[in-house]
Amino acid sequence: MPPNPPAALPFATFRGAAALRALRTILVALVALATAVVLVAPADAATRRLTARDGHTSTRAIGTIGNGTARAAFVVPGKRASTVTLGLELRRKGDGDRYRVRATVARSGAVRVAVIRYRGSTPTVLSQRKLGLKVKAGQTVWVEGAVSGSKPVTVRVRAWRSGQHTPGWQRAVRDSSAHRVTGSGRVRVVVRLSAAPGAKKVTVRYRDARISPAKKPAKKPATQKGPKPSASTTGVPRGTKLKVHNGNIVVTRAGTRLDRLDIRGFVVVKAPNVTISRSIVRGGSGAKTAQGLVTSYGPKNLLITDTELRPAHPSVYVDGIKGWNFTARRVHVTGNVDSVKIQGDNVTVADSLLENTTWYAHDPYQGGGPTHNDNIQILKGKNLTITANTIRGAQNFAVLGAANQGNVPNLVVNRNWLDGGHCTVKLQFHGSYKIKATVTDNKFGPHRAVAHCPIQALPGVTLIARNNVSEQTGRPVQIWRKP
Fold first, then answer.
1. If one looks up domain 48-213 in CATH, what number appears?
2. Class for domain 243-480, per CATH?
3. Cβ-Cβ contacts under 8 Å for 268 (sequence gap 6 or more)
4. Dihedral through CA 323, CA 426, CA 474, CA 463, nearest 10?
5. Domain residue spans in the chain?
6. What are the phi and psi torsion angles at 363 (to 5°)?
7. Whole-prediction pTM value?
8. How does pLDDT run across 402-425, given as a tens digit for each residue?
9. DSSP bridge partners of 297
10. Domain 48-213 shares a fold with domain 243-480
11. Which of 158, 189, 184, 191 lies closest to 173, judged by CA?
């Protein structure tokens, strides 16, 4: 709310010095009101200009930054004999130490971005990249930089033509050197004209120069709340006595509970509200078609808990759990082609150990080629949650969100210990199907065929990913977005 205007003064009652004092009071109040209005006006809204001579730099201060971002929109100048640089200085100190993020526009219109550290007047290029971007005179180019931290300092840059979607950071640098620039410093808009025959000066218009300080991060939640699942915390609790059941079990009665059994056959669930607890399911011999040690194609509310699924007769046809509408808690699944194969809605896998799939050189479901072994393969389904598990030892992927039979609109993969595979987590889709996944607070081990690929999300996958780190170092892991 603006300040209240001063009350009207009865001038007719004042004489001489009193009148002058009254007038002074009014003027002070009016100046204060005008100042208040100016302070809230968007000072960066107007178009401004910087002129740089041949081989020189022109700058203008716009504020101060410690951690945060700064950006400005530059209009590409017309005819010129040399390259023009458009950018921002971050954390500039009194002695000239600072970072500069820039977009260099060649005479051809090609754009290159770079991150530079200055020690006084001496520049060191920390990183640069030529973009697949060309601009013309009169077009507007956005340049944005970000700076954060102290040990190390992270500096990022990106540039894009007005009207395009804002890209991801095109260069990011972690500066751990003794000359890194820490703390707060000035922010300046920068224009530079490179020295070249015939180059005299260039005037660049810019607008919307702004600084956005970083918000103070919320306290980071613990990645995992409980112990890492292992063979001692999953499967049949120690000391449980089991009754041997020879042969397959087909469950047709709602509410059936299979408890404390050593099942030497397969289990097929055809009724709702079934529970399998404190048991071992070993399967049988002679499987001729794909099946799970436990298979449930749709009956609601199957619960598998404190159970081990380990085939006594491993086969190219045998998975661990197949189907949908089930919850698996504290299960230990090992020695199958796929540990868990999800083919529909409403699945939760939690607090479990899924490990050591079995590879075969010839698989009839892969055209006679080798098996594609995944700890968890997701063909389709909504309401899918994979949380607080240890998942490792698959030849293909620890988690494969394939979406090749239907949409996968809300897959959640969080608080797991993940390792192994070609890539460890892969998210993809087939044809017109879509997949949206939230992958958060996971720890990744080092064992995978492609070292730089803990998470691969193909273009077109909608992915929310945060706080995924290396189990060994605690550092954030990378996301591979290429096919």
1. 2.60.120.560
2. mainly beta
3. 248, 249, 250, 251, 295, 296
4. -90
5. 48-213, 243-480
6. -130, 120
7. 0.57
8. 999 999 999 999 999 999 999 999
9. 324
10. no
11. 158
